[in-house]
Amino acid sequence: MLDAFLNYDLLRNTFYAGLLVGLIAPLLGTFIVVRRQSMIADGLSHVTLAGLAFGLLMQKKYTLLVFTPFHTGIAFSIIGALIIENLRDVYKAFQEIAIPIILSLGVGLSIVFIALADGINTDIFSYLFGSVAAVSGADLRLILYISWLVVTFVVFLYKPLFALSFDEEFAKVSGIQAKLIHFLFIVMTALVISASIRIVGVLLVSALMTLPVATSMRIAKSFKQTIIYSIIYGEIAVIIGLTTGYYFEIPPGGTIVITSALLLGFTLLFKRIQFIVGIKRDDRNAA
Amino acid sequence: MANPIISVENVSHRYEQQNVLEDINFNIHQGSFVGLVGPNGSGKTTLIKLMLGIEKIQRGSVKAFGKPIQKFKNEGRMSYVSQKANAFTRGFPATVREVVSMGIVSNQKPLLPGQKSDHELIVYALKQVHMKDYLNRNIGDLSGGQQQRVFIARAIVNQPELLILDEPTVGVDSENVDHFYQLLSKLNQELGITLVLVTHDIGSITTYVTDLLCLNKSIHYHGDPSGFENMTDKERSKLYGHSIHTITHDH
Fold it and tell me: Which ranges does the record mark as transmembrane (chain A) (predicted)?
């Protein structure tokens, strides 16, 4: 089934981009989930949509070819990330309020830009739900750079990131530059989201950052294991989702997320059975 | 006497309209075990946050190891066990080993090299708090008292000179509280770590600490715990009760 992906250039780009996204989305997703900020991805993805719509509008009106919608999407995502950080500072006691603000702003802007560009077209559809044929060579290179940046960021700042996620106060006392690292982290999140949108679409980006992590947390014994398993689950979902999406002509966002949800379901079921078997064995041993 | 590790001079602090600290002055010397006691709302946590440099100083000055706290680069000399250590996200997927490893952040090395020496430091710290056998257990599976000991291991893994603990016995059952204080006493005497223990439970710590600091917005007593014990109940309640009265009066 993978043949088609490896034989056609455009599909091959999508496949490689999918593998990269399957790595970086759960990698950052693990930190996002344990910090209880799962909604951030949703907020940022809708701002990215505004950026994509803006890019499409510019392309249409001014045939502006230097910047693609992908580029404007990244730019909007980063700006959105900075606004979220700023709002969280302003509303210290109600930090979660930053998400609905930025999310609705993103959707609002998207509607305006799409309307100005004379309505929904197929491009927007592919951005909403992902596409198997959306990744150009240039896009793939950009996704590769983003992935390299994100992986380097996590490897070099693993300890401070982990410490900040677990217990911010202790981390600050240890001399960790909390503000700087939060800032870098949210910028990285913005980059991962704009990269992932090519594959899974705006509406389902947050699923790729959280579902594999939710599954992984059920079986992992440590934080590092949580990261590793969530990446494995992410990659499995991307590979199965992309191939089935291609063969059944379904946008891959749907198939990837359903695969992720099935993996979660199976894992929960497996843990349940393991638990029941364990109790029965204990009962037998006690008898 | 040698230079103090911490010196607090003329510190006052307020939140919104309310004074929480008024004209605080004291020094903490190397090797001491300071009990910082006071009723709830007496400004204890604010005071140690100022000492740790995580709360901005409004008035007065705090020096750590001779340097103004604003310019002090910690690098592992000063460590902290917070009141909220018990309130970390339950079910956070981390092992005891990983939690303790967070303490080794001053020498920020990348993930890959140097794993072995970190491991030795972690095992040593866990041995000090009798938690070595729990190395690979999930932190969420431990009891409150066990978790607190792991957080102490995390705080001492860098071998700090000063350890500040904010109400560390909250969530530890009363039988284990004494063991807990004995453990702290051992860290103080055997490892030479200077300790500041914040608590509202004045009764049980007077046998362990070398210095007692009674706080209720301002400092009401500073000195040998025996001096405090020798006071009559009336004098003591005057120290404590009078200021409690002022607080209720303020509202």
Answer: 15-34, 64-85, 97-120, 140-158, 227-248, 254-271
